[in-house]
Amino acid sequence: MRELVYYVAVSLDGRIADPGGEFDFYPAGDDEQAAAYSAWMNERYPETVPTALRAAHGLADAPNLHFDTVLMGLGTYRAVLDAGITSPYAHLRQYVVSSTLGAGPDPEVTVVDDSPLDLVRKLKAEEGKDIWLCGGGRLAGSLLPEIDRLVIKSYPVVAGAGIPAFDGAFDPTLFTVTERRSFANDVTATWFTRR
């Protein structure tokens, strides 16, 4: 069965974006450190690089290794819409969960206005690669019962405020660390599996 994987960057205090939805406060290190980190992560997760940036990263023809579907909330999608991009991951099946967006602005993006849990359970029952939950915090909070694995890229910065990685009801959920890697730019990537 396909799994739901929350692959996301977080600050030390668990924020995935600032109060306005931006994530440009994450420190990347110097140019060499940033390039090495980006190359390592992109080689392992090429499908998480937005379509418009794939060629610049040498990933134009890279196959999808882990995911064939991406799921995001309106806040995550709104950030790319505001930049004039209607289909950020054209190399994946794209779903946006929103009760307010209405009809999607792009036929390659499916807007779902009902239960995200029902959507994920339906997607998990299909054949294919795993499902990437790329944000946001409210969606992750509502989908916590269905999240099978986490890939958390932890950046060495405290945001102080902003969008939490999980914004939902109190629901302690245990995960086991399966792998951890540190990079020269002080980013730590940790892989977790649900217990």
How many strand segments? 10
Proportion in β-strands = 25-35%
N-to-C order of helices and strands: EEHHEHEEHEHEEEE
How are the strands of the largest sheet arranged?
5-4-3-6-1-7-10-9
What class do helices, strands and sheet pairing give?
Answer: alpha/beta
Proportion of residues in helical segments:
10-25%
Overall mean confidence score, pLDDT? 96
The number of distinct helices, counting runs of at least 4 residues, comes to 5
Oligomer: single chain
| Overall spatial form | globular
As a whole number of angstroms, the C-alpha radius of gyration is 16 Å
Task: State the end-to-end distance.
Answer: 17 Å
Low-pLDDT residue intervals, each spanning 5 or more residues:
none
The largest β sheet comes out as:
8 strands, mixed
Question: What do these coordinates show?
Answer:
This protein is α/β, with parallel strands linked by helices. The protein is 22% helix and 29% strand. The chain has helices at residues 31-44, 51-54, 74-81, 116-125, 137-143, and strands at residues 4-10, 15-17, 67-73, 93-97, 109-112, 130-135, 147-154, 163-164, 175-182, 188-194. An 8-stranded mixed beta sheet has the order 5-4-3-6-1-7-10-9. It has a two-stranded antiparallel sheet with strand order 2-8. The longest helix has 14 residues, at 31-44. It is globular, with a radius of gyration of 16 Å. The model has no long low-confidence stretch (mean pLDDT 96). Residues 4-187 form the Bacterial bifunctional deaminase-reductase C-terminal domain. It comes from Streptomyces africanus. It holds the Pfam family RibD_C. This is Dihydrofolate reductase.
